[in-house]
Fold this protein.
Amino acid sequence: MTVKLIDPFQRPISYLRVSVTDRCDFRCVYCMAENMTFLPKKELLTLEELDRMCSTFIGLGVEKLRITGGEPLVRRDIMTFFRAMTRHLDSGALQELTLTTNGSQLERFADQLFDAGVRRVNVSLDTLDEDKFARVTRWGRLPQVLRGIDAAQAAGLRLKINAVALKGFNEDELFTLTEWCASRDIDLTFIEVMPMGDLGNEDRIGQYWSLDDLRGQLAQNYTLIDLPERTGGPARYVQLQESGQKIGFITPLTHNFCESCNRVRLTCTGELFMCLGQEDNADLRAALRNHPDSNVPLEAAIRDAISLKPKGHDFDYSRQRADGQVSRHMSHTGG
Ligand code: SAM
Ligand code: SF4
């Protein structure tokens, strides 16, 4: 029997997030610069290499795979990859195949995703105001995303909205977003803006809206019941007593839940990041490409990388500086 992946702090690694492209059809202000330079195609893992990589992780005990980016649905032929992963769902080795998307291509792909075995999708949406949406995503158009959300629900996909909490931007939409999600039976999670990537265009601390504060505002209109639910990630959940709705909080800045972290992140070039908030990574692409006929070196490289997983990240705004900043953009590691 294969020995599963356990890190030095005795955390079992059962969750892999995979960025399948660094490209995107949006340019969200907190994620990318407007004129990004993307990687040359040969740097990217091919769809076959992504399959081999993910299948190896699944062989080592990964049970949950989340596909992200960049925007995963803009990668050419990405459905071929999703369909290839269906065999691991069918065999029972993989318990969940999920996706984080900006929603722009969901109208086109929702049915195919469902057919491939995807059941839950996270859609990133920070505002329901068309002008504000165009401002924060620079290139995005809200009606297209809303059509994608309709299509996904019609296809039977369970949705969660991820909204980055931005001071002075969507503070006034806290209740609108909450009620809109409740009316559509969509879960909602708020995320604190993280100091990723030197975008040179903004003031991170000025943008930062603490979720402790957001939670306090929510509590003015609703009774919040803390839920014990844990996913091994940084999210904590409450239920709104009045509507029964579930709201999540991802608080890398105000609270650090690294002690139960069960995940690692693979970039589209085959680097494995053991922690979103640290620079350390392992080059798995070499182990894969240099040994086309054997996965043994790749498995060894994965085990070596996991043995270096750090205890946690060092993001900290408490000294009114964006401490712990990492220089990569979120689109590189996939959020
Ligand atoms: N393009 C897809 C999307 O937007 O959902 C997937 C990739 S995107 C990098 C994944 C998530 O990271 C999104 O929910 C986005 O809002 C979030 N994100 C990007 N930059 C961030 C930052 N600096 N701080 C917090 N969240 C960020
Ligand atoms: Fe693209 Fe997602 Fe980054 Fe926005 S957050 S620029 S949609 S990768």
